[in-house]
Amino acid sequence: MTSKFLVSADHLTIRFPRTNAPDLIASRAVNLDIAAKETVALVGESGSGKTTTGRALVRLLTPSAGKVWFDGKDVTHIRGQALMRYHRNAQMIFQDPFASLNPFHTVAHHLSRPLTRLRHLKGHEREEALDEILTLVGLTPTAIYREKYPHELSGGQRQRVAIARALAGGPSFIVADEPVSMLDVSLRAEILTLLESLQERRGLSYLYITHDLASARYLAHRIAVMYGGSLVEIAPAEDLVQAPAHPYTRLLLAATPGSAHTGPLPETMQSAPDLSEDRKGCPFAPRCPAVMDRCTKTMPAMITVADGHQAACYLNE
Amino acid sequence: MSQAAHTDAEQAAVQAPVKRSSRWKEWSGILKRDKRPLVGIVILLLFMLSAAFAPLLTPYNPSATQFTPLAAPSWHHWLGTTASGQDVWSQFLYGGRISLSVGFFAGFIATALAVILGMLPSYLGGWIDTTMATFTNIMLVIPGLPLLIVITAYVHQTGPVTIALVIGLTGWAWGARILRSQTLSLSRRDFVIASRLSGETQWRVLTGEILPNMLSLVVANLVFATIAAILAEASLEFLGLGNPSVVTWGTMLYWADTGQALLNGAWWWIVPPGLAIALVGLSLSLINFGVDQVSNPRLRLNKVKAARKPRKGAPS
Amino acid sequence: MTEALSVDSLHVSYFTQNGLVPALRNVSLSISSNEILGLVGESGSGKSTMAQAVMRLLKPDTATVDGRILVEGQDLYQLTPEQLRLARWRDIAMVFQSSMNALNPVLSIQEHFTDTMRAHLPDISEAEILKRTADLLGQVRLDPAVARNYAHELSGGMRQRVVIALALALDPHVLLMDEPTTALDVVVQRSILDEIAALQRNRKLAVLFISHDFSLVSGLANRIAVMYAGEIMEITDRGMAIEDVSKHHPYTQGLMRAAPRLIGSKVSIEGIPGEPPDMSQVPPGCPFYDRCPLRLPMCRTTPLPVKTGRVYIRCHAMPDPVSGKAVAHDV
After folding, report:
1. Measuring CA to CA, how many Å separate C251 from each of B12, B71, C314?
2. What is the least distance, in Å, from the CA of B24 to any CA of chain C?
3. Measured between alpha carbons, how far is residue A122 from residues A107, A129, B309, C148 in Å?
4. At residue C327, does pLDDT exceed 90?
5. How far is C93 from C110, CA to CA, in rounded Å?
6. Among residues A71, A4, A66, which one has the least CA distance to residue A29?
7. From the candidates C141, C153, C155, C185, which should be mutated to test the interface with A, based on the most A CB atoms within 10 A?
8. How much is the pLDDT for B259?
């Protein structure tokens, strides 16, 4: 593995065992590389495996197969102290700011724990670091916010606290799992621009998980699209939006509000993708208007369409 | 960047005095709206104080058999006397000491066991969890009182402490099951996952993140375990399985029964211990209405919302 | 001409621990048949209260309702309970976000249709019911065989289609939809919106479509009403085209600048700083005053002008709009 990338998923597979049914494969041999200071958006509908993939990258889940690399090191199976050290570098922001903070703890408590555990700060040093992070996410005057409980904050303020907590360990990589989808439009913009400026100031890499292509285009350098547990396309953000190469990406783009697309949706039927272990071929084949015989038999590998633009579809051969 | 500049409105909102609805305020607010827990607290306090200050409230030794047997209530004997010439009022006061202590002690043991056996397996996981879950379910389907009778019959020297231990050691299963499922559900919450990412040890996640969110369940469990313990203690002693020479509300009923108080029309011998047990049970149930309101997330959420800003138009 | 739905100076306040708290203030709008009016607002803006008030679903002990709501000329608040029961579904029907989870799990889809039709049309024959059900399911692009299924056997999108078909069972003229596609995936959402647009055209329905998503509504509605702090700030028939931003109410402008776009060149976004006012202490002037970049001194104390008409802007700093082109991209 070259260390050109900060984080890499290498044939990452997450399997959930089921009784009386074939195993469910939430994430199937996903290859994804994220460079330092880069934002990759992972776009897909619910059940596409985007959250599972994100959680595996911060090692909240242990992959069933494949590897997770961080900064040239294999972190696939680390545990205990090593995992804790990894979490100094890799953090996560959750979707629902009302569920990601403990109602019994103050803002200061939420931030002082990672400062203590991950950075081993104490006393005066810790208090200073705490104020610095609060200022960084725009929660000033810090003295007032420190003592607040989550229920005394608005949704946007809570999400800022959650971001501050993720920053406390001094990470270089953050998985942001739908960080704005529960917020009102006017607050979304504030959180997105905050994430943007934090990237600049702290040199962060993001995996931005979302179902919203418009915000992915705004925030990300590259966009990766997942469907049915598989990565189907990855490209520089603008390329993906302007010239999608996978039929599913085209469908997603056509369906997104505010897209230029006005005709009927390019799909043959509506159905949920088959996630079971025995699925063969492309997960999108049953809905694909351009389906070919072999699509139902083998899953196409990623095919390069343009510079940095790859799609897993035989149409691009 | 826009987030750098907060508006006047936000600043003003921030600098307004911190409206802290402290836990105490929350509880007193509940007591103001709902009188039932308050009534419960008053009743329970009356019993506890009268038991604690028994020597000040009666001049007689509860075991002394020096008075006229089966005397009706009078100025000298407020609640009359027993068939062996003991003062019922002093038995009632001193008996409360043991009955309440045993009840709370056993309730505490049962709750402590429920917390440990409910939370710990999910922390240790694996076969321990599976085994514990099975064991809990077995304990649940064994009928309680017969089990108690069998155990107390085998154990010699069944003093109050033994009885409390037996009741506590057999009464944890319900609580354990509830706390176990709550632990499992809480451990999947985002804030628990986030604390794992913050480097918290699993022990700390359990005690610092999960346990506080279950406190009201624990208190409710304590309340019900105590009621159950007081009733179980009275039952065992009434059946003669306790030490009859120790004065408790249960042994009072036992002696009243063997002394044929009903046949002799000595209602003053039966009613006080029976009523006391019923009233203490009632008071704890009333208190639990208050605990319920603290723990009911819906009631709580509404309150917080109303306190913050009435966002009534908000989509559900 | 009688409007299909007209709301006239509607005021709604809730009884709360802090006294009477307004949720809707001076709301007036009307929808003629054959048009979709989008109602857009952020959380707490009162848009869901609007849906409940229009359906007369607010209980007298939770809220006070003032003003008139006319459906096809009849005042819903003057009807007896029995008349109201008949008017709901027959004259005005409603689909809301959680509708798809409100289907009775022990009844088949067919039984839902049968029960609804029987309740309103006691004399209807079994054959007629089956025929109409199949027809309605076909109109939302579902296989009529779905009627034999139970709710749990259908996907979320299919259930929401069933609910829409069910809402149309008695051929209402007015359809009220409160976030009907919010819980669904983008592709399913879009295809349901397509169906709503087609149904509206074919049946000449008047649709009040409530949503938090400006870009979604602007692809669907003929006109859009923008709500803030319980008041309608603007009714517009312009889309959210970037070059038109400055022709909108300052709050609408803020919303438009806050949303990342998918078409055109990538432009920076900015949020609206601050938060909506506390509804229990709404300021006397414009509720957006604190956050408004265009505010004038008078805006703080002078109430917003009351306006009626197809399109309007309620703002002291903005001129009245000239009607633009139709919003809908004709989906």
Report:
1. 20, 86, 11
2. 19
3. 17, 10, 37, 66
4. no
5. 19
6. A66
7. C185
8. 83
Q: Which tokens in the block code for residue C204?
A: 């000449």
Instruction: Name the residue among C154, C229, C220 with its Cα closest to residue C192.
Output: C220
Q: Which alpha helices (H) appear in B125-243, and where do they start and end?
A: 126-141, 144-154, 160-170, 173-187, 190-197, 202-204, 215-238
DSSP three-state, residue C159: helix
- Contacting residues of C for B306, CB less than 8 Å apart: 16-18
Bridging pattern class, strands C231-236 and C74-75: unpaired
Contact A189 C269 (CB under 8 A): yes
- Nearest-CB residue to A102 (from B1, B197, B209): B209
Nearest-by-Cβ selection for A138 from B6, B209, B304: B6
pLDDT in tens, B171-193: 899 999 999 999 989 988 999 99
Write out pLDDT tens, residues C103-133: 999 999 999 999 999 999 999 999 999 999 9
Q: Residue C87 has which token pair?
A: 């008017």
Block residue for tokens 């890799």? A90
User: Residue type at C68?
Assistant: R
Q: Do C42 and A184 touch (CB under 8 A)?
A: yes
SS3 B69: coil
Looking at beta carbons, which residues of chain B come within 8 Å of A152? 18-20, 308
Sheet holding A7-16, edge to edge: A24-34, A7-16, A65-70, A73-74
- List the structure tokens of B286: 């009333």
Give the chains touching A; criterion: ≥3 Cβ pairs < 8 Å: B, C
> What does the alpha-carbon distance between residue C166 and residue A37 come to, in Å, rounded to a whole number?
51
The first and second tokens of residue A135, run together, are 């200022």
Banded pLDDT at C17 (limits 50, 70, 90): confident
User: Residue C176, SS3?
Assistant: strand
Distance between CA atoms of residues A156 and A191, nearest Å: 7
Q: What is the pLDDT of residues A58-86, one digit of tens each?
A: 999 999 999 999 999 999 999 999 999 99
- What is the distance between the alpha carbons of residues C292 and C42, in angstroms, rounded to a whole number? 16
Contacts with B200 from chain A: Cβ below 8 Å: 113, 117
- As a whole number of angstroms, the distance between CA A247 and CA A289 comes to 8
Question: Encoding tokens for residue B119?
Answer: 């939370």
Residue C324 CB: number of other CB atoms within 10 A?
15
Q: Which residue of C has its CA nearest to A270?
A: C188
Cβ distance of C263 and A259 shorter than 8 Å = yes
pLDDT at B34: 79
